[in-house]
Queue: 2 jobs
Job 1
Amino acid sequence: MFAANLPKASLASLSNLSFTRVGSVAASRVFLSTTRANAKPNVPAGFAAIKERQKTFNIDNGLRVHQRGGTMDKVLYNATLLLILVGAVEWVRVAYTLSFPPAK
């Protein structure tokens, strides 16, 4: 019933119609776009600072990632090593004490 009310169209007119529609949509997007090609991006200051910090880690300067962070990373790395060393010494002390209990 609905199909009978539609006008008959040839295949050529359908393909021609679709190409003109695509062309007009593309043209309207080019001319009616709200962004400009030479516009500066509006980036928040905190995000820009993070991106700058990430650039220092992407430079190939021969350092490992945990060595590139600066003084604070060096302090945290050495504190972690000290904590591991103290933990290992304490583990050995407890294991020795449990293995050889003091005589009474």
Job 2
Amino acid sequence: EMCIRDSYCAEYHPRVKSREKTPEDVRKDFELAISLKASKGVVTPEGFKEYYEDINATLPAEKDDYFVNLVKQTWNLTEAQQFTAPEHSKKLEAIFFEKVRQKTLTKEHEGQTLARAIHYVDSTGTPYISVETFAKLLVYLGCILKEEDINALYSMYDVEGTGQLPCETLINIFATRGSGNKPNPKPNFKLRAEFPTQAIDKIRKLLISKGYYGLRSLSYLFSKIDESNSGKVDRAEFAWAMKESGQNLLAVDFEKLFNYYENQETGGIDYEEVMKGIRGDLKERRRLKVHEIYKLLDKAGTGNIPLEDIANAYNLDKNPKVVAGQMTKQQAMDEFLNALGVLHKGVTLETFEGFYKDISPMIDRDDYFELMLQNSWKIPDAGKKVTFGEKHQQPCLLYTSPSPRDLSTSRMPSSA
């Protein structure tokens, strides 16, 4: 067991490279887990196998590459990691960048040059660079390196150790380093982007954990940042919104997320597209019901319902916090209007529908959703009443879980 402890390289663990864990934490976890497989201080082949079977059982099937990489790196089986010092890797990176810089035209940045070079060595348009393609790229740029140096340089960018380095990640690193104030320029040709499933799932999980207004809080943040009502935010604004909503994305996940949604021409992000990716869109049945309620509320038919009319029509009689004495009706109304996000403006159909888009994922059944809509508004002609069997409990008509912060006082820093 002592030999195993001494040979285990916690500092090379993928979670250490991605800065999710410290080497000390990884080593502590390993020693505890492997000690459970030891018998009288000795780890048998069967015990060693069981240790990795336990790890494998916690990973989804698509993480096979991660599992293999974890085993190789923590037992120092990769030559590049065994012999390449960090100082040497930095020198290799400097050589790589200089070769790209030398081929960069006056009115371009290094990201564009690298993008063209990638397209030249691999014209298939694949969104990833394998280590083999990376080696061809280096040769094309005039970087003649040893095999171990190529592997070491590639590992610097492939922080997850998957062997599938996103082209956009590498291009953005060079564009940022070369252009300073242009942190996310796009190449001249469009690389196919893979949907950022991991980042979206992480964002969705955190927002939903905050209650029924969790998703709405992020929509409201975006709308507050977008003072020009363009429907778009830039990179700095998007990063601030993620941080303000409590997200703690890895750099690689943020890059995949931003690159996927970024508009090629403007460089910004359509935040409604991001929200659609997080919570989906309204089902047609639900959308029609939302439109029906809105038309009944819009008595003047102007397409912009005064806030006073909205407040008068909203039903607070069954609000759980009001009934329990935790809130006054005015406090509950303020919470609702804050989540609606209209402040002193009227409510358009777009705003009304957007509100229920963010609420909809919290309600599984369409009939529950319709009942919630009907009971939430003082409209006698809101359609046929929906009934439930005895086994089903009616949903609360108002979702009162507060946003993580008081959005009415939250402000984006001027330096962002």
